Amino acid sequence: MKGEKDMCVVGGINNYTAALTNSSAPLVDPTISLMFLAHFVGDVHQPLHRVWDLDIIEKAMKDFYNDDLSIMTHVIMQNITEAWSEEEREWEACSSRTKTCADKQVQVRYGECATGVRCGVRGC
To answer: What is its EC number (predicted)?
Structure first.
């Protein structure tokens, strides 16, 4: 398998997936194929981070806080000490500093479909 000029990342995903499914005569080391496949899937996924990490925050700041970061920061801090104060106590009460206490929140947020989900369990 070799690269093609101007080939899109989705084409790369298709090529490396095909290479992994053809075990009879691999053109590329399967480990390399898997590494590139994971990398390319991440590349396709990356634009979603822009939406969550930047666009939504900027829109909220404009729509609710008059484009003023200090107001937005103040409201978030106020929510932590007032509106989210019950959750804050739960965060502080978490007995482990190496694991999260998200089990309860997962159950509350996602209900029955999350039954049996445990933090730290592979595949969680």
So the answer is: 3.1.30.1
